Amino acid sequence: MEHVLQVKNLTKHYSEFTLDHVDFSLPKGSIMGFIGENGAGKTTTIKLLLNLIKRDAGEINVFGLDNTRCDRQIKEQLGVVLDGSYFHDNLKPYDISRIMRNIFAGWDNDAFAGYIKKFKLPQDKRIKEYSKGMKAKLSIAAALAHRPKLLILDEATGGLDPVVRNEILDIFMEFIQDEEHSVLMSTHITSDLERIADYITFIHEGKMIFSSSKDELIYDYGLLRCGAEDFKNISPSDIAGYRKGQFGYEILIRGKAKMLQKYRRHTIDAASIEDIMLFHIRSDDR
Amino acid sequence: MDIIISNASDKPIYEQITSQVKNMIINGMLQEGDALPSMRLLAKELRISVITTKRAYEDLERDGFIETVAGKGSFVAGKNVEFIKEEQLRIAEEYLQKAVHVAKSGGISLDELVEIITLLYREDI
Fold first, then answer.
1. Which residues from chain A sit within 8 angstroms of residue B57, using beta carbons?
2. What is the pTM of this model?
3. What ipTM, to 2 d.p.?
């Protein structure tokens, strides 16, 4: 499998925080969701990918090239959307076009105009008059207009309503219709990922918890519910995380098919990505 | 061609796709040589991941229902329907064999077993 993005042992030290040996790769033509609580290191990782800050150790290859040495070459083919709009409030879409074509050799005015129309963005309004959803779509339009192969988004759908988020997910699905295109998106809205993401990478307190195919996660993990008496009979090695309530236990288990056989008397529900994330973080605290 | 995906179902999504496509082929709704939507288009339209549709298509190909031609897409395979049915029958028989074995060792009568099968057959699609 060819990878557009390969991260190996990525490490960055700050006085209060360390991004510790993060490892993942994104196969060409797929969508990867990047999840973790606030301060887990998602933005730090993305900044390192974009060569905005210097790494202390490890390797980052984008399109098979080292990201510090081939910065210029990589960025021509990279579309980036960070949280919030980074265009000046007084600009109109046309002004953005004029600025951006001087930056990117591959900037395509027609493509940009096409996206503006498709996303129903008003052309004669200044950005300060745009709604939050419009700003997000404008940023995505600008990121796509130089025809990138990889789209990297950091919390691009944060604070947006379900309708706009849905439209944006459609844009991503449309984008990856071309097998050469891939998406890496960090988000807190795991339900968005539940459907469209091919891979999920989860980091917690600067450490990587897992990076795997989403189908594997949601079909492999399950939530077993039982009373306090039954909890004692469940072998600790089967417990990936648990929550004790007043009226019973919720246990995150792996290898659902096997567990269904082993604990026949109990119900095992499907676990959502959010469940998997929460239980991993919580069992860390216990 | 309709494919209906349920998120509430216990059946994994790729299985929901394969069983519906198989059904369409066996019913004759899809004929030999008919083109299937591309994996990426199907993923986009169903709002599911490409990996899931890829897995479904790979399973369909493995079972001989479709053929994938690189650069062109996936098509309903030239295998005749009778043969596929025969194949499915053989697989069903295999599972039933196991059920009969369990029934016999568990003291379940033939009538009870038939009743269970009838019930299951009617409630599941």
1. none
2. 0.83
3. 0.76
